[in-house]
């Protein structure tokens, strides 16, 4: 699942991850993400931390309560160091900066899924 | 634009690499700490001195990059963006993470990766846009690239209008959120000025700055939009 509200980033993630053979479900805001997470199971979650309606901490807390074993990769901008650090303390597994390097994304996703 | 000085830890005993790196980043906007071995960088981090990005050679003494990075992550909870320098590898993996590589000998593209990671562009490029990133991402898929250009115009335009309204209403927090949201769109077409303006609005602007920077961003967007339409969105010129 991709939780991200920039349409170009969403499109690029969908394109690359689909090309790598993954099925991608997108939520463009926190509320939609929470609804989808309650209804379906996911193998990996890539999420922005600045989303409409729901804060980054809230979305991570929700994911951790609904599906504690699913790895989380944070999609960050490079200037979010404090937020990223806090996210790690809440149990996220990895982060990748936007716009992402295609090879780096592939490797990080593959690695996170291998841990499951 | 007053961007805070960024602190770079550079661990590579290769004097030529140090020299090339230092000369590029010797601008007053960056502070580079050179270390011939990882021990100096570890000490720097242990003492909680500033470190916005770490760059370490894959064979850095005494433990090599992999073991050093595992130590920094596990023992010191070091989370800043990290690159590994290498002459051959395209990416670098440890047991627990994957790192982007800066390929030696460094050229400007490698340095720009560091600038980008720091949310900083040292030079305002004259180039309004480039499709290099979209091409790399899609392996040159022209449908994807055309759709992305269209999407840039259709999604960023309305948000710029929103920024103008928010600026008039002096809704500064909301301006920061919108600027943060659209920054990657400018970055994906490699428009440095737009990305830098967004970054400033999102993270560094004071109340007196917002109006003029929103106006600058609007001008930049209109200029890019005009050229993208001329270059790609007419039937004759699409990719």
UniProtKB/TrEMBL annotation, chain B:
InterPro entries: HPT_dom_sf (IPR036641), Sig_transdc_resp-reg_receiver (IPR001789). Residues 7-119 form the Response regulatory domain. This is Response regulatory domain-containing protein.
């Amino acid at each position: 699942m991709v939780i991200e509200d920039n349409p170009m980033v969403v499109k690029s993630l969908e394109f690359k991850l689909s090309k790598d053979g993954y099925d991608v479900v997108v939520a463009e805001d926190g509320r939609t993400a929470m609804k989808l997470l309650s209804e379906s199971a996911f193998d990996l979650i890539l999420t922005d931390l600045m989303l409409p309606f729901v804060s980054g901490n809230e979305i991570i807390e929700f994911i951790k309560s609904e599906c504690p074993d699913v790895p989380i990769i944070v999609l960050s901008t490079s200037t979010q160091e404090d937020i990223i650090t806090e996210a790690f303390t809440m149990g996220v597994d990895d982060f990748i900066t936007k716009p992402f390097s295609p090879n780096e994304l592939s490797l990080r996703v593959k690695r996170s899924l291998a841990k499951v | 634009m007053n961007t805070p000085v960024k602190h770079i830890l550079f661990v590579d005993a290769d004097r030529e690499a140090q020299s090339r790196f230092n000369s590029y980043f010797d601008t007053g906007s960056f502070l580079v700490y050179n270390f011939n071995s990882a021990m100096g960088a570890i000490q720097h981090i242990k003492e909680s001195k500033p470190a916005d990005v770490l760059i370490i050679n894959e064979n850095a003494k005494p433990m090599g990059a992999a073991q050093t990075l595992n130590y920094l992550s596990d023992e010191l909870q070091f989370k800043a963006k990290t690159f590994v320098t290498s002459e051959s590898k395209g990416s670098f993996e440890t047991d627990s993470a994957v790192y982007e590589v800066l390929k030696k000998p460094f050229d400007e593209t490698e340095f720009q990766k560091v600038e980008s990671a720091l949310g900083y562009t040292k030079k305002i490029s004259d180039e309004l846009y480039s499709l290099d990133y979209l091409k790399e991402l899609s392996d040159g898929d022209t449908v994807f690239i055309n759709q992305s250009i269209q999407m840039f115009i259709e999604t960023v335009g309305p948000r710029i209008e929103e920024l103008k309204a928010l600026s008039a209403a002096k809704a500064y927090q909301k301006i920061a959120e919108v600027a943060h949201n659209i920054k990657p769109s400018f970055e994906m077409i490699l428009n440095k000025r737009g990305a830098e303006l967004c970054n400033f609005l999102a993270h560094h602007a004071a109340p007196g700055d917002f109006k003029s920077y929103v106006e600058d961003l609007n001008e930049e967007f209109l200029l890019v939009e005009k050229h993208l339409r001329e270059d790609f969105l007419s039937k004759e010129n699409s990719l």
